[in-house]
Amino acid sequence: MRLVKVGIASVNTTVGAFVRNVDRALVLAKRMAEDGVTVGVFQEQLLAGYPAEDMVQWQGFIDRQWPELERFAQETAALPTVFIVGVGVALQGQRLNCAAVVAGGRVLGLVPKEKLPTYNVFYEARTFGRGQPGMAEVHRGVPLGDYLFQFDFGVLAPEVCEDIWSADGPMRRRAYSGAELVVNISASPFRLGVVDTRRELIATRASDHQCTIAYANAVGANDGLIFDGGGYLNQNGRQLLEAPRFREGYAAGVVDLDRTLRLRGEATTWRLDREAWVASAGKGPSVLDCTQVVRTRRDTLAYPVPAHRSFFLPAQSQQRSAREALCEDILDALALGVGDYFEKTRAFKLLGIALSGGRDSLLTLLIAHRYARRVRPENPGSLIQAFYMPSRYSSDSTRDAAETIARELGVPFQIVSIDEAFERERAVAQQMLGGASVTPITEQNIQARLRAQRMWNWSNSCGGLFLQTGNMSEKSVGYTTIGGDLMGALAVIANVPKTVVVYLLDYLQEVTGYEGIRKVLAKPAGPELAHNQVGEEELMPFPILDACFYLYAGEKLTPAEMLKALVSMFPEVEATRLGGYVDKFVRLFTQSIYKWVQSPLSLHIGNLDLDRERALQLPVVTGSEWMRDKA
Question: Is pTM beyond 0.85 here?
Fold first, then answer.
């Protein structure tokens, strides 16, 4: 047996906070060493924080990381553990996103990332250069390139994040060249469904390449990106460990690397593929002999046996239901996003929400309270201030719902009417029009803008973080007001569809029993900016709206193709009506792009959202001729 204990660590980093990031990593490194960990795996860009975006173009931003990497090496010099950490370096005019191997007080080598994503939320090829097969350079006296590392426990191959997502990544040639333990350091943002994808991908890669994979992911939020942390230890396709998510810390598991070699010998297909690769003179990595640098302590490690003490029977399942997993992941991610933005900016003292008594502001409040409950468990409500700002169109039921949930959560609650201010602003608008009447939509927007202005005044005066409460569905079709409910410092649910908002509230009502949630859900959704407003009557049924958004913005279908899909999806609705909904959606969506580019930073939880700097980049000014069917 060749037992190795692998620690998978996630650190909540802040971009540019090199000293603080390393301090946090050192705490975990020392704890892992005390726990007998042989190899401690940290995340991509541990020192700099991720994503640094164009900050890496500053030479000082790159250069300042090296002294902190050396400090990490010096402060772990006496530990019998090998560490892999993420760092940025500059080499011959290029910036390289590297995995650094650290042990015995030294930086033993640097392995640069080869696959640079430029899709979805990623722009790495804009700033970073690529590593190459067979690359062998030197940076500050340290080998930099396509390297394997021979230790007393076996052969280790580092790689960085996207390298594992490509079937043609460096893992293949490194496994064929002798790598037994492949260590992937990652900063993979949270997206709905990504956990299952990651798990399956790692199992596939470990099986395809007949190796052991240790995968560590970043945790925490920077700007609108949320990283859920966690990680995996998988041996030749068998999962051995899944680290907890949404928290800083580490998890560790033991693996027998002799088993990895034995399984290679039994896998005739793998052996034949390797022979073919060697015969084709494939360019492999160089091996650095590090056996004398550090002597690991593995004599006390126990063979990894199943916790339920059976190699043949399945363990009792601890798996959550699909509903619970979806809801808890979204809520945990958004609460982390709110909390890290609040803490890392170091500009705010309170969280502020304009409660309307409706679904969106209610969900935003519950997410903020979820964060506050973690950091102030004794009195979470003391971190939040809620305001209800009624006009003549506000109903008693929404006021009661807002008061009820604030009381149940222990959140300070104020009622501040905007009715008198509404009359004044309407009169001023009429004066500016030369006495002509303002339009009904202007009357609605005046109310929304008054509420936003008051929230900004409160924010400026007390250091409050003004949370914007609009959802993605209504934002996509411009059912929101520039200078009004579109505004705020952070848009919490701006990338959550309306149907998901309702689904989350149903779940929370079930698990918490809050009467305030029940009261909000009892009334049809509407902005209450005019008499008897109902959102679905002014727009379309929300399930159809969300389907339109997904088909058009996600699947990139034309209006004619959208209609075909909707007819299959909603057979109970007349095709002519569905066609009207499609036309209305596309028209409103296209006309509303100018609105969403003015909206605040939003939290990203899916592969599709309306943050123009992230997932969906569309020109503001565009024609629609291309959508029409060719005669």
Answer: yes
